[in-house]
C-alpha cells in the first residue's frame, strides 16, 4: 500500500452502512444520523471534500466515535447533489476522488473529523506496452476467467441490460472491466471493501472473480433447493387434496339433502387450495396494478416488473428497487381529482383576510376562482407572480389554493441545475427516483392540485441538462396531457394542475418558458400598506410566536411607522417582521426580568415611537433632506426605486462662463439626455420668463441630484429639470411644497411615466401639498392610496406650461 507524500488531510468523516465507493464512481447514499447530515450540508455549501468509510458492525449506534468501529481504508469524495427525502433523511450523490487511510478521528464541536492520508493507485502500471510476454498472458487469463464467470452471474439479474453485458465482454482494459462490474453490478459490501483496500488491479480482479464465482454457485444451489421445495409441496398438496375429497365423499354418503360442501370441493380448482387467507405480496401488487386507470401496454410493463420480482428471493438486492418502483407508481393519484367546492364570496374573504392591498392581484385571483366555479376541469392555467422579495408571492399561492378548494403543493426550483430533478432519474441508475413534479403530485394525493413552482427565475443549467427546457413540456397546455417522467416511464396528465410560478425578475427566465405563463406583477408595498400589514397581521403573529399575550405588549401606531421609516428599507415586509419579532423578544425579556423601565407597568411593555430606540438602537435610515421653502433653482422631483418611491430634489446652478453644462450626482445616460433636452427647450421659452436668449453661450450650467453615491436614471425627471433651469435662469423661486414627475420632449409636451403609486406615496410622506403628474397618467390615479388622494392636490399637466404655472412661486 503506497502512501502519497504530503497528502495528509483533515476532513469531515462520514460513516456509512453497507456501502463502499471507489474513485471515479458516482452513487447515491441515504444518510440518517444528524451529525453526518449537518457535516454534509456544510461541506456541500463550501464545496469541500469528505471522507467516507464503512462501519464494521452495522448494529452499532448511529454515531461511531471509536477508531475501531470503522474500516481504516475509505474514499475521499466530493458531494455532487443533496436531496432531502424527508425531515430525517437526505439522499446524497457522492463522486469518489481518491482512496485514503484513516489515521485518527476526533469529535470537534459535534462534528466527526477524520485525519486521513491519500493512497496511491497503480493506474499506469499495467499498460500493454509496459508488460512482457509472461505478464501479458497472466493479465489475459485473468480477464478471460472473469468474463466467463460474469456471463453466468448476469443470468440471475435480468435488470442488467444487454448493452451493459456487451460493454463488459468487449472491453480488454482490466481497469475498465473492473469499474464496469464493480460500479454497476450488485456486489456484497464487504467484498467491495476488500477490493478498495487492495492497490493491485490484478488482486482486485481476483477478489471480484471469487465473489462472482461464489455468488453463481449460491444462486444455483438456491434454485435447486427451490425446485425441490416446490416439488415436495406439490406432492403434499395433491395428497392432501385427494384425502380431503375422499373424506368428504365418505362423510356425505347417504346424506342427499345437503351436498353444498361436497359440491364446493368437487367444483373447486386446485389453485384454491394453494391460497392462504391473506393474499401474497405479489398478488396484492397484481390486483393494484390491474385497477390502475392506465393503458394496457403500461400495465403490461408493470406486470413484467412484477414477474421479475416474483422470481427473486425476498432479500435480493434488486427486489428492493422493484418494490420501490411499484410502490411509487401505485402511490401516484392516477385519475384521482379533488372536488372544487368554491364559493366566490368565501374566496374573496379568504384573500382579503390573508393579504392587504394588491387589488390587481386579488382581482386576477378571484377571476381564476370564478372560472373554476364555472368549469372545474379547466386546463392550461399557468400564472407567474413576479415581484421583489417579501411581497407575498408564495402566500398568494397558498391563499389561491384555499380559495379554489385545491390541494396545495410546492416545488422549490432555486438552484436546480439537473434536468433529472424535473423529469426524474431512469431506473437503471442506483437510488433513482421520480422528478420533483411527479413527487409533488404524489404528496398532494390528487391529480389537480395547485402546484407552486417557487423561484423559477433561479433555475440554472450545466452539463447535466437544462431544467428550464424540461419544464417546457410540463407547462405547455398542448403537451402536458401526457407528461413523461423518466422514472415512471408512464405518461401522466398534468393538464388539470393549476400551476403558479414565482420569480423576482423576468430577465433570467428563458423566453419560450415565459411565453407559456401569464405574468402578474407584484409591486413593492407602500408605507401605508406596510403599516396595515404590520398592525393587522405581523404584530399579532409575532406576539403569539414569542409566547406573549396582547395584554403583555402593545405596539403604538407611531412605533410601527418608526420601524418602517427608520429601521427598514425594503420592497416587502420580511425585515419589518424581523424587527417586530426582535421587539417581542426584548419585551419578553423585560417582562421576565422586570427591570423596571419607565415603559414597563404591571409587566406590560408599551412600544412607541419615543422609546423604540431603547429597544432597537440608533436609527438605521434617515429621511431625505427636503427643502419646504421656496428656493431658486431647487425643485422636488419624484423617483421610483426597488424599495418604493422617493423624493428626488434637483438643483441647478448658473454661473458666468462659456455655455458648459456639468451634470453630477451619478446620473445615468437617459437622465443626461433629459438634461440636454431640458436645456434646448428652455432656450425656446426664454423670452416668456425674461431669460437671456444667449445664456447657452454666456452661462455655465451645473445640474446636480443629491445623494451622489446612489445611481439614478430614467426619463421622468424631465419636467423637474426644466423647472429648475427656468427658476435658476430667471430668478423666480420654485414652491417648496410642490413635487413633480414626467418626461418631456423638445416641443414641451409632458409624457407619461411609471411607478405613480410609489411616487405619490413618497410625496405624501414628505408633506407635499401639490403633485404634478402627466395628464396621460390621470387614469392610473385609482392605484394610489386613498390617504394620498385625500391629502394631496393633483395637477394633470399636458405641457410644460401647465407645470411652470403651478410650480413657480408668484408673489
Structure description:
The protein is an alpha/beta fold and 811 residues long. The protein is built from 27 helices and 25 strands. A 7-stranded mixed sheet has the order 19-20-18-17-21-24-25. A 5-stranded mixed barrel has the order 1-3-4-5-6. α2 (133-154) packs parallel to α6 and α18 (527-545) packs across α19. Mean pLDDT is 82; it is low at 255-279 and 595-602.
Q: Could you name the ranges where pLDDT drops below 50 across 5 or more consecutive residues?
A: 255-279, 595-602
Q: Percent of residues in helical segments?
A: 40-55%
User: Count of helical segments?
Assistant: 27
Total beta strand runs = 25
Strand order of the largest sheet: 19-20-18-17-21-24-25
SSE-based structural type = alpha/beta
Q: How much beta, percentage-wise?
A: 15-25%
Sum up the structure in keywords.
811 residues; alpha/beta; 7-stranded mixed β-sheet; 5-stranded mixed β-barrel
SSE topology:
Blueprint: E1 3-16, E2 26-31, H1 34-46, E3 49-54, E4 73-84, E5 90-107, E6 112-119, H2 133-154, H3 162-170, H4 174-184, H5 189-197, H6 201-252, H7 260-266, H8 281-290, H9 296-310, H10 317-331, H11 344-354, H12 359-374, E7 382-386, H13 393-404, E8 408-412, H14 420-423, H15 436-444, E9 450-454, H16 467-475, E10 483-484, E11 491-492, E12 498-503, H17 511-514, E13 518-521, H18 527-545, E14 553-555, H19 557-567, H20 574-593, E15 600-601, E16 604-607, H21 612-616, E17 634-641, E18 644-656, E19 661-664, H22 669-684, H23 695-698, E20 699-704, H24 718-730, E21 738-740, E22 743-744, E23 750-751, H25 756-765, E24 770-774, H26 786-791, E25 793-797, H27 800-807
Parallel strand pairs: 1-3, 7-12, 7-13, 8-9, 9-12, 14-16, 17-21, 19-20, 21-24, 24-25
Antiparallel strand pairs: 1-6, 2-5, 3-4, 4-5, 5-6, 10-11, 15-16, 17-18, 18-20, 22-23
Helix pairs in contact: 2-6, 3-4, 4-6, 5-6, 6-7, 8-9, 9-10, 11-12, 11-13, 18-19, 18-20, 22-24
Amino acid at each position: 500500500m503506497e502512501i502519497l507524500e504530503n497528502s495528509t488531510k483533515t476532513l469531515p468523516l462520514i460513516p456509512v452502512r453497507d456501502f463502499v465507493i471507489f474513485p471515479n464512481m458516482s452513487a447515491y447514499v441515504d444518510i440518517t444520523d444528524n451529525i453526518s447530515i449537518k457535516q454534509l450540508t456544510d461541506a456541500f455549501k463550501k464545496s469541500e471534500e469528505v471522507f467516507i468509510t464503512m462501519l464494521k458492525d452495522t448494529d452499532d449506534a448511529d454515531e461511531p466515535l471509536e477508531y475501531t468501529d470503522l474500516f481504516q481504508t475509505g474514499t475521499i469524495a466530493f458531494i455532487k447533489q443533496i436531496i432531502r427525502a424527508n425531515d430525517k433523511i437526505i439522499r446524497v450523490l457522492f463522486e469518489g476522488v481518491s482512496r485514503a487511510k484513516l489515521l485518527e478521528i476526533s469529535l470537534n464541536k459535534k462534528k466527526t473529523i477524520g485525519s486521513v492520508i491519500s493512497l496511491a493507485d497503480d493506474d499506469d502500471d499495467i499498460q500493454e506496452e509496459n508488460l512482457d510476454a509472461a505478464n501479458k498472458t497472466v493479465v489475459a487469463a485473468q480477464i478471460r476467467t472473469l468474463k466467463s464467470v460474469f456471463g453466468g452471474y448476469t443470468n440471475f439479474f435480468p435488470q442488467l441490460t444487454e448493452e451493459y453485458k456487451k460493454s463488459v465482454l468487449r472491453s480488454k482494459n482490466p481497469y475498465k472491466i473492473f469499474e464496469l462490474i464493480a460500479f454497476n453490478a450488485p456486489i456484497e459490501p464487504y467484498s467491495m471493501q476488500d477490493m478498495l483496500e487492495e492497490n493491485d488491479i490484478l488482486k482486485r480482479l481476483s477478489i471480484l472473480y471469487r465473489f462472482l464465482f461464489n455468488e453463481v454457485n449460491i444462486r444455483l444451489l438456491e434454485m435447486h433447493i427451490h425446485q425441490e421445495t416446490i416439488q415436495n409441496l406439490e406432492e403434499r398438496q395433491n395428497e392432501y387434496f385427494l384425502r380431503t375429497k375422499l373424506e368428504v365423499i365418505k362423510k356425505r354418503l347417504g346424506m342427499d339433502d345437503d351436498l353444498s360442501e361436497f359440491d364446493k370441493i368437487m367444483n373447486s380448482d386446485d389453485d384454491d387450495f394453494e391460497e392462504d387467507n391473506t393474499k401474497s405480496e405479489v398478488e396484492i401488487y397484481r390486483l393494484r396494478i390491474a385497477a390502475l386507470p392506465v393503458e394496457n401496454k403500461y400495465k403490461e410493463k408493470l406486470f413484467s416488473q412484477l414477474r421479475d420480482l416474483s422470481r427473486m428471493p425476498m432479500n435480493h438486492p434488486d427486489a428492493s428497487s422493484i418494490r420501490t418502483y411499484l410502490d411509487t407508481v401505485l402511490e401516484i393519484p392516477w385519475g384521482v381529482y379533488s372536488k372544487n367546492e368554491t364559493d366566490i364570496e368565501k374566496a374573496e374573504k379568504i384573500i382579503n383576510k390573508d393579504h392587504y392591498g394588491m387589488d390587481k392581484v386579488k382581482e386576477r385571483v378571484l377571476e381564476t376562482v370564478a372560472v373554476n366555479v364555472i368549469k372545474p376541469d379547466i386546463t392550461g392555467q399557468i400564472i407567474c407572480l413576479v415581484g421583489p422579495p417579501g411581497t407575498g408571492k408564495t402566500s398568494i399561492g397558498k391563499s389561491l389554493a384555499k380559495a379554489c378548494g385545491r390541494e396545495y403543493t410546492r416545488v422549490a426550483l432555486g438552484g436546480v441545475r439537473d434536468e433529472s430533478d424535473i423529469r426524474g432519474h431512469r431506473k437503471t441508475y442506483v437510488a433513482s427516483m421520480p422528478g420533483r413534479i411527479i413527487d409533488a403530485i404524489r404528496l398532494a394525493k390528487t391529480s389537480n392540485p395547485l402546484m407552486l413552482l417557487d423561484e423559477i427565475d433561479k433555475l440554472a443549467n450545466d452539463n447535466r441538462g437544462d431544467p428550464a427546457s424540461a419544464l417546457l413540456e410540463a407547462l405547455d397546455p398542448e403537451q402536458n396531457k401526457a407528461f413523461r417522467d423518466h422514472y415512471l416511464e408512464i405518461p401522466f396528465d398534468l393538464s388539470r394542475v393549476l400551476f403558479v410560478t414565482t420569480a423576482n425578475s423576468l430577465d433570467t427566465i428563458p423566453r419560450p418558458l415565459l411565453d407559456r405563463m401569464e405574468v402578474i406583477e407584484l409591486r413593492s408595498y407602500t408605507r401605508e400598506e406596510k403599516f396595515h400589514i404590520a398592525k393587522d397581521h405581523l404584530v399579532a403573529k409575532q406576539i403569539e410566536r414569542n409566547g406573549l399575550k396582547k395584554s403583555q405588549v402593545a405596539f403604538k401606531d407611531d412605533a410601527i411607522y418608526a420601524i418602517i421609516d427608520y429601521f427598514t428599507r425594503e420592497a416587502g415586509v420580511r425585515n419589518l417582521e424581523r424587527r417586530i419579532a426582535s421587539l417581542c423578544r426584548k419585551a419578553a425579556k423585560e417582562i421576565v426580568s422586570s427591570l423596571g423601565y419607565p415603559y414597563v407597568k404591571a409587566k406590560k411593555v408599551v412600544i412607541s415611537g419615543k422609546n423604540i430606540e431603547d429597544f432597537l438602537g440608533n436609527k438605521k435610515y434617515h429621511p431625505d433632506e427636503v427643502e419646504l421653502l421656496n428656493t431658486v433653482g431647487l425643485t422636488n422631483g419624484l423617483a421610483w426605486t426597488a424599495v418604493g418611491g422617493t423624493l428626488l430634489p434637483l438643483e441647478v446652478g448658473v454661473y458666468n462662463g462659456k455655455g458648459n453644462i456639468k451634470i453630477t450626482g451619478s446620473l445615468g445616460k437617459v437622465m443626461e439626455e433629459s438634461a440636454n433636452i431640458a436645456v434646448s427647450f428652455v432656450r425656446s421659452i426664454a423670452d416668456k420668463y425674461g431669460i437671456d436668449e444667449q445664456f447657452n453661450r454666456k452661462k455655465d450650467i451645473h445640474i446636480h441630484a443629491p445623494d451622489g453615491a446612489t445611481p439614478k436614471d430614467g426619463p421622468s425627471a424631465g419636467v423637474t429639470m426644466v423647472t429648475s433651469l427656468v427658476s435658476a435662469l430667471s430668478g423666480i423661486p420654485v414652491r417648496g411644497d410642490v413635487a413633480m414627475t414626467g418626461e418631456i420632449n423638445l416641443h414641451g409636451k409632458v409624457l407619461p411615466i411609471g411607478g405613480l403609486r410609489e411616487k405619490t406615496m413618497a410625496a405624501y410622506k414628505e408633506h407635499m401639498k401639490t403633485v404634478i403628474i402627466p395628464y396621460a397618467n390621470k387614469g392610473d390615479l385609482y392605484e394610489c392610496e386613498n390617504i394620498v388622494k385625500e391629502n394631496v392636490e393633483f395637477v394633470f399637466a399636458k405641457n410644460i406650461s401647465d407645470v411652470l404655472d403651478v410650480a413657480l412661486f408668484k408673489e
